[in-house]
Amino acid sequence: MSTFLYNLGKKAFNKPWYFLGAWIIVLAVVGALIGVNGIHSSSEMKIEGTEAQKVLDQLAEELPQAAGGQGSVVFTAPKGERLDTPERLKQIQQAVGEVYKLNYVINPAELAKQAAAAADQTDAAGQQAATGQTDAAGQQAAAGQADAAGQQAAAGQADASRQDAAAAQQSAAQGAAAAPYGPLMADGAPVPGVMLSADGSVALFQFQFTEALTALSESQLNAVIDAAESAEQGGSGLQAIPSESLSNQIAIGSTEAVGIVVAAVVLFLTLGSVVAAGLPLLTGILGVAISVGAAFAVSKFIHLNDITPILAVMIGLAVGIDYALFIVNRQRRLILDQKLTAREAAGRAIGTAGSAVFFAGLTVIIALCGMLIIGIEFLSTMALVAAASVFVNVLLALTLLPAVLGLVGERICSAKAREKAKPVGHGVRRGFAQRWASGTVKYRWVIVVAVIAVLGTAAIPVAKMELGIPSGASANLDTTARQSYDAISRGFGEGFNGPLVLVAEPADPSGAVTAETLGILVQGLQKHENVAMVTPMGVGAGGKLAIISLIPKTGPTDTETKDLVQDLRAADSDLAKAGGVKIGVTGFTAVNIDMSSKLADAFPLYVGIIVILSVIILLLVFRSVIVPIKATVGFILSILATFGITTAVYQWGWLHSLFGFDTGGPLLSFMPILVTGILYGLAMDYQVFLVSSMRESYVHGHRGTESVIHGYELASRVVLAAAVIMVSVFAGFIFAPDAMIKQIGFALAFGILIDAFVIRMTLVPAVMAIFKDKAWWLPKGLDRLLPNLDVEGDKLIAKLNARDGEAHSKH
């Protein structure tokens, strides 16, 4: 491997324009594909096989008009005033009318007319009862429902029986009459889809789209928001606040640029040259452009979640900059310490540091691709795109970087740097690294105990970690998502932010959902202690399927809501038995509950896979039994501490003002799996670069703790710089506007901080000093069985030294 990479590096150095031209062509092809196919992404995070998704799929197949997405807008009056004044009523009516004019928003009045016309040909009286448009109680139920899908389902059931429709209407009227809110009345009739709170200060306008929210473009959603906000015109003080569901775009802001600036400064301080510092930035940015661009180019054919390219940018920038830094630093040390030419130093740097880069990148790719075993489509796509970003950056570091070094030539080291390097011999740099390594070796037992105690304490909050999808409840106070959430909670109750959709079907396939059954279900549901409102929305053709809207008393991310969903789904529940039905629960809240549950169940399996991979890969790389075990235990400590601190900050709200958010909430459901995979790969990067230097020192004759100190001196400076760069890049995303990006950025930044500085640069040398030369022990049978990957480039160096010796003897 090292010999092949050495020859590749020299070829790229000698013929830079061939390699530069090839990558420029690749970039041009990616750009052309984007131009042809366009960019397609959505906020949808669907997990096939969950109960909520099965119900959604069933609705889409049997009752497609009930499967569209829902949106809502909250109208609020100034403090102490009401919305039902003549002026404000007129403004709300006009805004509601503007929203219903959009061809992708369902107008319940038009739908009712169509249903009535169809019913004239069958049973006019029965249809009139089913649509509920001429009965005041039915109108009140339609206005008071929490799920607009139910409106369409109720209005569109021309085949429902007269008795079933009448029973549904009567139950809805009873529920609406008992509620502390009701329809917003104007000109003696309810405003379609709008409810008014008891004190008249808040009105909730809910409506349904013709298709899923994730299928709507940003411009379409903005048109809805603009139409609703037209109610604010007139100077009456009325405010229209769109809900979180009307924004399906994830924003990352501009704070990530700060991370790149910090990376540039660190590169300059480490390499001491603007030219040398610019090369890692160049390859990192180009790698992101190609890999993320390629993902966008094929987004027409794959499901690309909005968060996927952002993660690829995070990881691609971090590893792209770091990998190039390792190689450039090795080339400069060979030039300054061994007085090699830039050409020879570039080849050797690619052959030695490049080998470490290859295997470090391979560990990241394997860790990311391990997520495919979990079998969740959107998570698999994230993993593949991120892995592709790492793969591209490895290729750039091994091919484009030496080509650019060929263009730079001897200028990679300035005259000042060469002069400064004269007193330093054999690449040994005395200073803080030597003192730190000596201290960790001297106090190794104290350090081991202290690190385990500190990280073990930091991991305690993991036991209380709750997973979910961040909602308006945890959004910042100045956002419309939070203002909408709070206004709905204040006017109607927190449960209206997370309505549930229930689908009842006969337990006996030959049976039907009758009026009596529907009545039993509604009455039974209303008796549950955590149910605020139940609205029967209609019965499908032949009574094979009934839809019910249910509003919990608790919020969408509360534990009580999760318990309610489980109670409703219980096949052996008294309610299901009494009605002779099977109850399915879906809706945005139920989907998120199922997603979090499945991801939480998959997490231990994934960690097990990571541990096994870690031991196998490090066994191959270091040809040691102790090193892989020590590295894996250290990673487990760092990942538990990372999740513990992330839980304390983002769930409990510790130091929330420091990190730019107002309220804690559940952690992003797929964050633990995603962060574990990424951190594992990056942690092994530092393990490879740091411990390979210790092994190189051991192979070259240093014994005992001397090999630990000497190897630490050789690698610590560049590992330190690489860790600072990664932390800076990831930390730049902590202050992004989106809560999901905040959490991922924080977990990655803090995870690298712990793993690089506490585990790799403190615990690792301490443990290596405890075992001394025994750290490299490998059973003889296993030694013969394992291939020698020559990550340190020993065979290459020996071959080159022999070549140089022959050349010298000839002269």
From TrEMBL:
GO terms for cellular component: plasma membrane. It is found in: Cell membrane. Gene3D superfamilies: Multidrug efflux transporter AcrB transmembrane domain. SUPFAM superfamilies: Multidrug efflux transporter AcrB transmembrane domain (SSF82866). It holds the Pfam family MMPL. Its main location: membrane. GO terms for molecular function: transmembrane transporter activity. Residues 286-407 form the SSD domain. It is a multi-pass membrane protein. InterPro entries: Acrflvin-R (IPR001036), MMPL_dom (IPR004869), Mycobact_MmpL (IPR050545), SSD (IPR000731). It comes from the Bacteria. The chain crosses the membrane at residues 17-36, 257-290, 310-328, 349-376, 382-408, 445-463, 603-622, 634-653, 673-693, 714-736, 748-771. Keywords: Cell membrane, Membrane, Transmembrane, Transmembrane helix. The keyword 4Fe-4S does not apply. The keyword Transmembrane helix applies. This is MMPL family transporter.
